[in-house]
Every structure is written in structure tokens, then in C-alpha cells.
Amino acid sequence: MTQTLERPGDAETGRDVDYVALARSLKPVIDAEADAMEAGATITEPVVDAIAEKGLFWLLVPREYGGGGQDLVTSLKVVEELSRADGSVGWAFMANAFSTGIAVGYFPEEGAREMFAGPDKGITAGMILPTGTGVRVEGGYRVTGTYGFGSGSHHASWIGAGFVVQDADGNPEMNGEAPVCRVAFLPRDQIEFLGGWNVMGMVATGSDNYRVDGVFVPEAHTMDTFSTVPVRPEPVYKLGLLGIGVGGHAPVALGIAQRALEEIAQIATTKARPGYPTVVGDSEMFRREFVTHEALLQAARRYVYDAHADAEAAAAAGEEITEEQRARLRQVATWVQKVAHDVVTFAYNWGGSASIRNPSVLGRCLCDISVGAQHLLVEPMTLVEASGPILAGYLEEN
Questions:
Q1: Mean pLDDT across the chain, nearest whole number?
Q2: Do 260 and 388 reside in the same domain of the chain?
């Protein structure tokens, strides 16, 4: 589908919009739709429409195109607020808005304007890793492939398909020793959706499998998968595909953990358990564990936003983002998954029977954070990859 953007605020005066507050304001409609989304394994229309009406899908689209023109830290905070309302909503939104940011920052201007600059602004989703093939033909590519994990694709108008470029004989084009890889976004009516999303958590993301079969994609609707040079001048795009794409996973974890703390704080005010003289919330043991886990979450939140703000400030100053800064973005995006999982587990365990009865916000939080932490972009091995530049910084200082 396409969405007509009704950007809030006063465009004529250029008044800034508080997108974080707008995201927070959607919690009532998301709460009301939570059970229906879980049952239907997709974000429901009232939630999609509410997000679109606030202009949130286009946070990372330049103001020149009629988008929000926001920095990455603000965009991360929007993801956190939506994830606090519901993990699946935050995750699907992250997949939509951040893939849009990548597309608009790295696509040829002709393609980006077609997709995002008109009154019917595209919503993107889909797999951009090069798991398909694209035969080079005049004016573009014929793309074929089967893809998985199309989070947010049920309401997206453009679907991503990463591919390895091939010549007419089926041989991969090479750039040195590496194959040439590109990302295409195709109109959803050219995609065959296959379903297949049957999981324990992040259920409503609707991360279905899909197929592309010999579809022509014009050059203007493709980009270099591993490009480090954006076509747009805004600092946010200098963070690169990984900086934008990986970063969005961190605030999803933060939002789910924050919601779990909010839930258990309320439950503990009335919950009685054997062996406790009054309600659980009066227990010194509960209170000590609560403030300890709350401190961990506060620290994680600060590091997430500080690390991204530091890298983005370097880009805004016209400086090269250092290897250590990029490593810290990888480090914090993965590390926060463990912190959030520990926080949610604490809340879930203290919830007792309130955690296990369906529908249960705490039960959903535990399932969502467990599934989110399995994503390959926040796989524990990424901490090993990040360790080199971080360790080098310590060695240089001594």
C-alpha cells in the first residue's frame, strides 16, 4: 500500500515536530489492538494508519522530500517508544523506517524521489542481503530469489530484494575477488508472498517469506549493497547501511524491557505470594532486584544513545566516523540484547501466574525479547568482531 503523508506541525514556519512524543501518544491505540495483532500475526490497520498519520514511517526521509528529516538518535527513540507499547510494532516499524532511510540515502536520486518525494510516500520492508540473483539487462536487472524475514511487509508498498549481479550467461560479476551485490526495491504487486511466519515471539511482525521471479527492476531502484558513500548530504546517511540498519535493533530491546518493568511495578502493588507478609511490592528482595535491573536498563539506554550520538556528531562535523566508533555501535546493539533479556526475565519471574496467562503483556515481552535477540545482526559473534578497534583504543592510550 502507499500512504499519503500528513506531516504534523507547521511546514510553512519550519517548526520542529516532537516525533518521540507523537510515538508515545500512539500507545493507547496499540494497546487496544495488541491481542488482535498477536492473533492475526500482523500489525493491524488502525495501528498502521495511526503511525502513518503522524508521519513516523518517513522519519529518515529528508524534509526536501516532505519527510521528517530526523537524526538517527531521535529515530531510535521513536522505535523505543513504539516497542514499549508493543515489541512487534516497534520491530516492524524499525524495519520499515530504517530500510526507508537506507534507500533514500543510497538510491539514485531519481528512484528515491519516485518512491518517497510525492504525496503517496512509499513504505519499505524486506530482505536486503544478497540471497537472490539479478541478471544485468538493458536499463536494469532481472531479479529472481526467495527471501525470508520480511518484517513489516504486510503493510509495505516497496519490498526489498538483495541479489548478486550476473551476466547473461549466469556468471557473477566480480569486483576484485568479491561478487557485485545490489539491493532492489520492487512494488509489492510484483512479489509473491509465501507466508511461513509461525513463531513464539515477535508474532505480529508478519515476517513472511516471499519470492521474486524474473522481475525487471530499473537501475534507479537499486543500490550497491556495500556502499559507504551516500547520495544525500545529511549526516545520518554517513553512518552507512550497518550503522542505520543494526542500530534500530537496540531501541526495540530497550522498549520491551521498559514495558516489562512498568508491568511488574504495577502487578507487584497487589500481588500476594506465599511466604510474603504483604504484597510482593513491599518485599525488600523484590525492591532490591527491581532497582538493580532498572539501573542496568538506564545504563544501557544511555550507552545506546551516547554511542550513536557520538558517531552522528562526527559525521555532522564532516569527520570520518572512526573504526572504534563503528565498533561501539556494533558492541552496544548486541550487548543491550542481553541486558534487556535479563530485565524482562526478572519481571516475568516475579509476575508469577500473571506472566503465563494469555493474554499477558509480560509473557509477550519475554517471547518478543527472546526472538529479537536471535537476529543475526545482534549475534554474539558481533561482539568479537567489535573487540578489535575497542581493544586497540585501550592499547593506544597506554
A1: 94
A2: yes
